[in-house]
Write a structure and sequence with these properties.
Blueprint: H1 14-21, H2 28-39, E1 48-55, E2 63-65, H3 77-89, E3 96-104, E4 107-114, H4 123-135, E5 140-147, H5 162-167, E6 182-188, E7 197-200, E8 210-218, E9 225-231, E10 234-242, E11 248-253, H6 257-271, E12 275-282, E13 292-298, H7 302-311, H8 315-326, H9 337-351, E14 359-360, E15 372-373, H10 375-384, H11 391-395, E16 398-399, E17 419-426, E18 429-436, E19 444-451, H12 457-472
Parallel strand pairs: 4-5, 5-12, 8-10
Antiparallel strand pairs: 1-2, 1-19, 3-4, 3-13, 6-7, 6-11, 9-10, 14-15, 16-17, 17-18, 18-19
Amino acid sequence: MLKIREGLGGCCAWALLVQVASAQSLCPTQLGPAIETILQQPSLRSSYWGILVQDLDSGTTPYARNPDQLFLPASNAKLLTTAAALAALTPQFQRQTPFLAIGQPPTLETLRVVGQGDPSLSEKQLEQVAIALQAKGVRSIGTLIGDDSLFSGNPIEPSWAWEDLQGGDGLPINSLMLNGNVFSMQLTPQQLGQPVRSQWLSAGVPSNTIVQNRTLTVGASVPESIETIWEGDRLVVKAQLRSGSPSETIDVPITNPGMHFLERLRTILGARQIQVRRVSLTTTASPQPQAFPIASIAFPSLSALMAEINQNSNNFYAEAALRLLANSTPRDPSQPTAQKGLAVLTQTLTRLGVDANGYRLIDGSGLSRKNLVSPRAIVQVLRAMAQPRYRDFRASLSVAGQSGTLRRRFSSTAVQGRLWGKTGTLQGISALSGYLDRPGASTVAFSILANHSTQPNPVLQQAVDRVALAIAQLKPCQ
């Protein structure tokens, strides 16, 4: 099916929201009734709501509804992951993916690339490595080795939904990643009744891949849908797109990302007249012969990684960050990396004053339907990260009406430019948590979690936004 665009609501819903935003200010005693009026709409009465609003300066709580109950947080789980990463890895985080050589130019006996879990690695960076090796006189490599052993355990979380795994939301996480571990495909509707045209946008798709096109261009009244399924070397594409609608770009998960990395690097080296005789992928850590560093690729800054996670709700980066947390402490090969990352996350958040009973995370991204978090735990995270030394945390959040998943929400309201938040969306779930600056008053931290809704996600999101706008009207009163 078509993936839900995180945080992008319909423009037509904003007329009502602007009316709410233009209402008179609310005293603390009026905020509760205003929010309850929103939540008592017939379409929302069956939904389960958790809300907590706290003043950052005074610590007072103008409003709370089920603040200690546990909710499915969707991508609000990323707030816990990024807070722990910023606290445990520090903003001075520096890491590189090394290329280690044995032998001397023009012939290297081996070239070993040691994966460090950089989720941002791209072919453009591999091209820069190839240029550097060519400049150093390298003309041939006996064995190109990919060391994919840093992360242990299952590369995907078993509790992720099938549609997330097939649709590009839940991707395998290994230590040698390239291009987000996906192939990009463009689907373009044709004339009514014709198949949708498919075209690969990514290089390096295996030549033996067969695309089975089970698609149809449909009329304007027919629902659109997209589904991809790997069946061995065959990719089955099922889709319905409306005639005249724009092309859709979808992400198709790479089934063997470590070997794909090596094959793409081999091709890129060959384009620079550097011959690679054979490639070898290792997933087991073992002592290695003495080698010298011949090239490296620097990670993005920690603040850049966190901004990609929170502003664009990048699940892939969030899962990589969880595993990087695990490697901030001495390595234990017997413990799966994701499990160890969750243990470090809990230890770090406890040190920051977040009650460990207020959440249970299964992954770092929020995709798992087994994640549970209370509004109070999220607000505790927000309060802890409001310290000046964690300024990169607030900077990583989307800004209402301006950036990230909030860029099309709260436009032309008093909240625009004053709310820094993280959205969360799964079917029947909508979340929004963050900071709200109030003119003439202190900033509040808030968390709004809605679960178990039978309403379409845009309807639920609109209700969440109306609650946020009511919070924005809060003012000190005698």
